[in-house]
Amino acid sequence: MGRMVAKRSGYIGDALSRREAFQAANRQRLVGLRCIEPGKRLRGGALLFAPGEPLQGHGRGRMTSITYSPELDCYIGLGLLAADFKGDEVIASYPMKNEVVRARVVSPVFLDPAGERMHG
């Protein structure tokens, strides 16, 4: 999205985007998440933790939305994850139902990232 922003002229949100919190190194980034445990599901609102980390507090991020993908035959979702997080696997903890699921961090574009199917 950064490429769509005009650098020479102003735009709505220009001043806000220069605030300190939006420039922080550990600011959360949008990621795709894919459930890697057969028979389990991801939950919207689940807290994201690094493997081996205690499942306490607010974690490193959160799941914002989920759905089942018949194409991939698993649950997938979008989430916000700390930019300084290293690794390709997270633990999604949903304390309301006492569920813990492993998920892989992937691109937020799950199908056809090059647009080949869309453009025939």
Helix and strand arrangement:
Blueprint (H helix, E strand, L loop, with lengths): L13 H4 L2 H4 L4 E8 L11 E3 L11 E9 L4 E9 L6 E6 L4 E8 L14
Antiparallel strand pairs: 1-4, 1-6, 2-3, 2-5, 3-4, 5-6
Class inferred from helices and paired strands? mainly beta
How is the quaternary structure best described? single chain
**Quick one: how many beta strands?**
6
Radius of gyration: 17 Å
Distance, first to last CA = 25 Å
Instruction: Tell me roughly what share of residues is in helical segments.
Output: under 10%
Which strands sit side by side, in order, in the main sheet? 1-4-3-2-5-6
Which parts are unreliable, with pLDDT below 50 for 5 consecutive residues or more? none
Overall mean pLDDT stands at 88
Strand percentage, roughly?
35-45%
Sheet having the most strands: 6 strands, antiparallel, barrel
Q: Treating each run of at least 4 consecutive H or I residues as one helix, how many helices?
A: 2
- H-E order: HHEEEEEE
Task: Explain what this protein looks like in three dimensions.
- The protein is mostly beta strands and 120 residues long.
- The chain contains two helices and six strands, in the order ααββββββ.
- The protein has a six-stranded antiparallel beta barrel.
- Strand 3 (61-69) and strand 4 (74-82) form a beta hairpin.
Features:
120 residues; 6-stranded antiparallel beta barrel; mainly beta
Give a brief rundown of this model.
This protein has two helices and six strands. Strands 1-4-3-2-5-6 form a six-stranded antiparallel barrel.
